[in-house]
Amino acid sequence: MARGLVENDKSSRKDIVIIDKMSDNYGMTNTLTNPNDLLDVLELPSILLNKDYEIEATNAAYESAFGRLDLTKRPKCFAVSHGYDRPCDQSGEDCPMTKAATTRQKTRVLHVHHTPRGREYVDVEMTPIKDADGTVTHFVEVLKPVENKVTTHEPVRVVGNHPTFREVLSQVSRVADSDIAVLLLGESGTGKEVIAQSIHQQSRRTKKPMVTLECSGLTETLFESELFGHTKGAFTGANFERQGLASAADGGTLFLDEVGDIPLSLQVKLLRLIETGSYRPIGASEPRHTDFRLICATHHDLWQRVQDGAFRLDLYYPLSFLAGFSVFSISF
Fold first, then answer.
1. CA angle 227, 297, 274 (to 5 degrees)
2. Are 181 and 175 in contact, with CB atoms under 8 Å apart?
3. Coil, strand, or helix at residue 250?
């Protein structure tokens, strides 16, 4: 955990109350005598801002990621991060401080920042802090660099600066850290597999493979064999045991492209795999288990597929609402 502040200004500060912890894992409210202590417990790069956009303190993680600031000159956040001479919302960007001050709640945006490594996407989380009277006096900004996005020093797979594109990358950044399963919706050619790869690369499973199964056009037998594998002699032509993709994805990510095209008769087996992590290779008598992060994609309107009798309702709900699935659409 990052410890210590680069610089701080302790003059004429009231006791303050942080609205909530900067990690989503905590919901408690804390009263701290020294507002700079807020940064000392944060692992990610963080800064303390006053209402005039001035950076009053940084933590060691910020210094390591973005360089040391001369805080005696009271640098403005928009000048440091963007090179602007005015606040972000006056320069064509979303300003997280303005939103946090208005809503009095934590807010997040995805920005392109100038860094020692060039221009990079940064996931910005802004939390307002109050004094004992309930007045917002400062803000804590936590900055999480988003890997493999816009840089000027190496090739990248995903490049763009349109607001809609930024929103997609922001959602990618938010879901990547957890094992939450994801359903990607978008027309063919909008880059669903590239987004899936980006989620995998930023996840804790990145050292394990992302295994892709193209569900469109597969016969029932071939689909089952590809996903679950088969034993030797399970059917004519099965001259050897074959590992299925569910097993190959163990520890990593399983990406089911065009999940809406899975044969109706096999959807119940996919549902069992999603809910229990268990499956049975063709010809096997005992179930096997696997642990993967699931990402699905489709160009279909799945609800319409349910209405047409081509997609199971009990599979539709896990893909859309239950089991921690995150659903977002891709359209540029």
1. 45
2. no
3. coil
Sort residue 32 into left (φ over 0), alpha (ψ -120 to 50) or beta: beta
Same domain, 72 and 185: no
Write b or e for each residue in 171-181: b if 16 or more Cβ atoms lie within 10 A of its Cβ, otherwise e. bbbbbbeeebb
Q: 197 and 133 in one domain?
A: no
- pLDDT value at residue 327: 45
> Regarding predicted confidence, which is higher, 247 or 9?
247
Q: Which domain holds residue 30?
A: 16-145
The tens digit of pLDDT for each residue in 247-270 reads: 889 999 999 999 999 888 889 888
DSSP 59: B
Strands (E), 206-277: 210-214, 229-230, 242-243, 253-257
Query: Are both 100 and 213 inside the same structural domain?
Result: no
Q: Facing residues of 5 across strands?
A: 59
**3-state secondary structure string across 129-156:** EEECCCCEEEEEEEEEECCCCCCCCCCC
Calculate the alpha carbon distances from 322 to 275, 314, 316 in Å: 10, 10, 9
Looking up residue 29, the CATH number of its domain turns out to be: 3.30.450.20
- 190 and 322 fall within a common domain: yes
Q: Say which residues have a Cβ less than 8 Å from residue 273's Cβ, sequence separation at least 6.
A: 227, 246, 279, 290
